[in-house]
């Protein structure tokens, strides 16, 4: 760095930040997500931000420059270089957040480790040591933990995108789960939330931009929902209903696609049981996950979020 920048006085030393995330992918694949400007443009920023520019030379002493643009159009540059590049296990990046005049706001010496976990998963840990150079840095560093949490959400989507593009060997992994929710609503109200198109649209979205929705809940009926995630991946839900008993149960099978790849085929049952003045809803699902796709429990977690959203819709 030029000597004029090194002369900037430092401020109080904040504690290091450590964040970690487990990914349903091998270390080599998660490591790959750091390896190019193309990948970093897809994920290296918090929610609502974008990366219009990135310049990455993935080697020791190679450049690391990323521009994060806020929703208001303000650019925030991180500039630095790679200090360590150990394939599939460790990265060290000497990062500097700079202002519009290219003056250093703070230094963030960043170490990233990749540890293989059972089931072909990876635990990635990010440690940042901060050196403030401007008073404004304290506020920015204070928000780093939340920013990294949102950024790792985006990295999960990028890892999935890379994984979907990779050739996969044929395989089937079976999994099942059971979820219960009790709602302060009648069985008729809950049944309507599951079977009426307008009522179901209030909760069966999952945070992606809706592209298509068709729904006909009856024995022999079908349902089709397609949406695009922020990462650009398109998910498609196609269901066939086998058994529908008003206010009591629904049995259906469905398949899921991410882009053009079929990732799973599942059998699901909703049971509606009287619970005092309310209703106990029981979802039981058996899934076959295909050709190397491992959701790492995301299907069960996502289903739980949706049933919570269903409950909120009953109160609206």
Structural class: alpha+beta
Just name the CATH architecture of the largest domain. 2-Layer Sandwich
Helical fraction: 10-25%
Q: Main sheet, how many strands, which sense, barrel?
A: 7 strands, antiparallel
Poorly predicted spans: 1-10
* Distance from first to last alpha carbon: 57 Å
* CATH-derived topology of the largest domain: Alpha-D-Glucose-1,6-Bisphosphate, Chain A, domain 4
> Taking Cα atoms only, what radius of gyration do you get, to the nearest Å?
23 Å
Rounded average pLDDT: 90
User: Strand-and-helix sequence, N→C?
Assistant: HEHHEEEEEEHHEHHEEEEEEH
Q: How do the strands line up in the largest sheet?
A: 1-7-6-5-4-3-2
Strand content: over 45%
CATH superfamily of the largest domain: START domain
Number of domains: 2
Total strand count, please? 14
Give a brief outline of the structure.
With 316 residues, the protein is of the alpha+beta class. It has 2 domains: 3-165, 2-Layer Sandwich (Alpha-D-Glucose-1,6-Bisphosphate, Chain A, domain 4); 172-315, Alpha-D-Glucose-1,6-Bisphosphate, Chain A, domain 4 (2-Layer Sandwich), CATH 3.30.530.20.
Walk me through the structure:
The protein has helices spanning 3-6, 27-32, 37-43, 136-142, 144-165, 187-195, 197-200, 298-315, and strands at 17-23, 50-56, 63-69, 75-86, 90-98, 104-117, 121-132, 172-183, 209-215, 222-228, 234-245, 249-258, 261-275, 278-290. The chain is α+β, with helices and mostly antiparallel strands and 316 residues long. It folds into 2 domains: 3-165, Alpha-D-Glucose-1,6-Bisphosphate, Chain A, domain 4; 172-315, Alpha-D-Glucose-1,6-Bisphosphate, Chain A, domain 4 (2-Layer Sandwich). The protein has a 7-stranded antiparallel sheet with strand order 1-7-6-5-4-3-2. A 7-stranded antiparallel sheet has the order 8-14-13-12-11-10-9, with helices on one face. It is 24% helix and 46% strand.
């Amino acid at each position: 760095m030029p000597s004029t920048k090194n002369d900037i006085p430092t401020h109080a030393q904040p504690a290091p930040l450590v964040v970690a995330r487990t990914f349903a992918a091998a270390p080599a694949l998660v490591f790959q997500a750091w390896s190019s400007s193309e990948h970093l443009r897809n994920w290296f920023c918090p929610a609502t931000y974008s990366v219009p520019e990135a310049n990455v030379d993935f080697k020791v002493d190679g450049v690391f420059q990323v521009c994060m643009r806020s929703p208001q159009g303000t650019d925030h540059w991180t500039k630095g270089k790679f200090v360590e590049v150990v394939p599939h296990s460790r990265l060290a990046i000497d990062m500097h957040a700079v202002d519009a005049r290219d003056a250093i706001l703070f230094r963030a010496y960043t170490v990233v480790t990749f540890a293989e976990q059972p089931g072909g998963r990876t635990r990635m840990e990010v440690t940042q040591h901060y050196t403030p150079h401007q008073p404004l840095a304290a506020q920015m560093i204070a928000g780093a933990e939340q920013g990294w949490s949102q950024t790792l959400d985006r990295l999960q989507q990028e890892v999935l995108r890379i994984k979907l593009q990779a050739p996969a060997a044929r395989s089937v992994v079976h999994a099942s789960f059971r979820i219960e929710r009790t709602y302060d609503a009648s069985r008729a109200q809950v049944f309507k939330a599951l079977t009426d198109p307008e009522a179901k649209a209030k909760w069966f979205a999952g945070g992606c931009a809706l592209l298509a929705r068709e729904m006909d809940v009856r024995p022999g009926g079908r349902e089709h929902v397609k949406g695009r995630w922020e990462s650009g991946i398109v998910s498609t839900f196609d269901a066939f209903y086998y058994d529908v008993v008003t206010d009591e149960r629904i049995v259906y099978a469905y398949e899921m696609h991410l882009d053009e790849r079929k990732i799973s085929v599942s059998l699901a049952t909703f049971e509606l049981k009287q619970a005092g003045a309310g209703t106990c809803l029981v979802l039981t699902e058996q899934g076959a996950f295909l050709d190397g796709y491992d959701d790492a429990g995301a299907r069960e977690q996502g289903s739980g979020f949706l049933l919570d959203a269903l409950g909120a819709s009953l109160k609206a």
